Model the fold of this input.
Amino acid sequence: MTGAATFHENEPHHNDIAHRLNWLRAGVLGANDGIVSVAAIVVGVAGATTDTGPILLAGAAGVVGGAISMALGEYVSVSSQKDSQHALIEKERRELAEQPEEELEELAAIYQGKGLSSETARTVARELTAHDALGAHLSAELNIDEADIVSPWHAAFASAIAFLTGAVLPMLAILLPPESVRIPLTFVAVLVALAATGAVGAWIGGGSKLKAAIRVVIGGAVALVATFAIGNALGASGIV
Done:
């Protein structure tokens, strides 16, 4: 035994696990969006026409447009979050440089508020400040890890890939089977996939997998029925 620092050194830290689970959850939700949105498009077009060309064209447009939209939305969201976090970090850095004693007292008060005695809280605050003052304050006050700020580009890329992964299923389900069974098979494939993504999302979040799967399946079924009915009505009317 070489010291306390080596205990369980191969075990992942809780924050690392939470971070990875958040990414996995976001990926599942992105795939779910790809499944529902593209399936709704191709089923709607298939309700209006049996020609493969328009279905392929509409589906491809939905896939590309949806992936870009997801990536752009994630990039803007994460960029705003990153800018806010950087502003808070700079504010804390400035306060530590200008008011070190006040910041030390503030850190001690935080730990005292968590249940430590006044003396222990001050000892902890002093030792953490000596080790990494900025990191200690960011963690205790703002729950921010300076080294763990998400890149907007990484988030955008991951979101687009997740969407594309989900979008592949309805495209294959509507294009590969014979014309006579393409719509029912697409319904079945999409609803089964949605049940799976709903259950996985619930498992990641610690919720009920059955309830989540049912909610997602009902929502997806409503979207498919609605778009198919609209496409079928437009096709029967001769408008398209």
Summary: The chain has one domain: 20-45+52-233.
